[in-house]
Specification:
single chain, 71 residues, mainly alpha
Length: 71
């Protein structure tokens, strides 16, 4: 399940963003079932993590193009 989460509510997409792993983010975003709107236990989404942890405009743009909304 591409949207499975760990005990903190982090999905594979959130982890890839936190690690600034652009190739993995791209790969995950190609999955038809990917949910870019998932939030962790703290209420943060992958889009939020793109600014808080990796500060990557490229990753933020990829997420936005995939439908992620700015909170």
């Amino acid at each position: 399940d591409v949207n499975a989460v760990d005990s903190n509510g982090l999905s594979a997409l959130m982890m890839a963003v936190r690690l600034n792993d652009e190739p993995m983010v791209r790969r995950l975003l190609t999955a038809a079932a990917i949910d870019v709107h998932l939030s962790c236990r703290s209420g943060l989404t992958a889009f939020d993590y793109s600014f808080l942890y990796c500060n990557s405009l490229v990753i933020a743009r990829l997420l936005h193009e995939a439908g992620a909304l700015i909170n």
